[in-house]
Amino acid sequence: MGSIGNESSRCTSFGDYNLIVDESTSRKSEHIMLSPLVSLRDRDWVGGHNNNSDQQSNGLFFDEDSTTLPSRSDEYVMMNNQEPLLYLPQREPSALNSVNYLNVVTYGANLFVSWGIGIWGLGGVLSTRWEITQQYETLVTPAEWAYYLWAPILILEGIFAVAQLTPHYRNRPIIQAGTGYFFFYCFVLQTAWTLFFSFELFTLSFISVVLALLSLLSLLLSQLHTISNDEKRSWLQYLLFRFPFYLHTGWMVLMSTDHFALLFRAFGTSAHMQAAVDILSLAVLLAVGVACLIRPPYNDLIIPSVILWCFVSIGCRLENPSDKMLLIYGHTLVMAIRDSAYIMAGLLGCCLTPCVVVWFAREFCTIRVVELDLNT
């Protein structure tokens, strides 16, 4: 709770209620304002009396978590034989709903599928994702350590699942309308991708991974169009509810391009066609990374950073190529792809660095001025 007004105004708490008293007048309740900033000046009741034109606003009152205004049924009491005083009941926390519960169930199921099937392989019952990737290795397959990015993704999405249950956030637009059911859709598609990939149904798994990527992009755009400008500037909300999905989306961009190259490898196309597809995959990664930096209002730094991570991991893996890669493509072509990955990482880094500098200057080296008109 908080109050804003002149020095003669004060706010007193009595149990579950809050009392506004203006000590400069004989009236004990005057015009008030509740969050969201909706004035009661034009309402025909204040303190249980008609709002006369000669009354002057002597203070503002707000509740940072409130989303509703008091009704005519709010309680009034008499104190010291004076006029009725207005008591404002503190807002009860909103109840959890189907979206909140579904997000928690979705995260738990996604954790099982990603780790239990994709990484663990159900204890040897199914082939793991890395085992199949090694079997159908391409020139754009990232190093094994690049897959460790799944750990922070799953941890951060777990924090998201818990944070969206708290009373302060559970009914926020970024959760109910922004995230909505997109997290669940993404999980269903990722589960299909994991299962199809485990059974080496690569065409179906490629379709699933692309649809999962589109679902994540829809989630990000939905969040962006739902939240207010103030919420966009909130670091806490960004870290809790948006950053995990940007990180996830960046990884799915790599998985989609890598899976595209793997598709041609699995179908046994010629070596020169496979090499052409691998080069095209690198070009697509670079184009997506640059587009995320220059395309307002969707420009962000996370997806290009993940793609940069992927370029470096591809180059590092080709520092010591497998015998299979050397046999299929030859040493010269393998080294050319390695150098191309490093060059593209450098190009993307050159585009990313000034964007980081501009973002840092805008966030930490500028002063944001907000003008409040308390007379309206």
What would the keywords be for this entry?
376 residues; alpha+beta; four-stranded antiparallel beta sheet; two-stranded antiparallel sheet; 8 strands; globular; disordered N terminus
TL;DR?
This protein has 376 residues and is of the alpha+beta class.
How are the SSEs placed, and which strands pair?
Elements: E1 2-5, E2 9-14, E3 17-22, E4 33-34, E5 38-39, E6 59-62, E7 76-77, E8 85-89, H1 98-119, H2 121-124, H3 129-135, H4 150-163, H5 173-179, H6 182-198, H7 202-226, H8 229-232, H9 235-266, H10 271-294, H11 302-317, H12 323-329, H13 331-364
Antiparallel strand pairs: 1-6, 2-3, 3-8, 4-5, 7-8
Helix pairs in contact: 1-4, 1-6, 4-9, 5-7, 6-7, 7-9, 9-10, 9-11, 10-11, 10-13, 11-13, 12-13
Structure description:
The chain has 376 residues and is of the alpha+beta class. It has 13 helices and eight strands. It has helices spanning 98-119, 121-124, 129-135, 150-163, 173-179, 182-198, 202-226, 229-232, 235-266, 271-294, 302-317, 323-329, 331-364; strands spanning 2-5, 9-14, 17-22, 33-34, 38-39, 59-62, 76-77, 85-89. It has a four-stranded antiparallel beta sheet with strand order 2-3-8-7, with no helix packed on it. A two-stranded antiparallel sheet has the order 1-6. The longest helix is centred in the last third of the chain and has 34 residues, at 331-364.
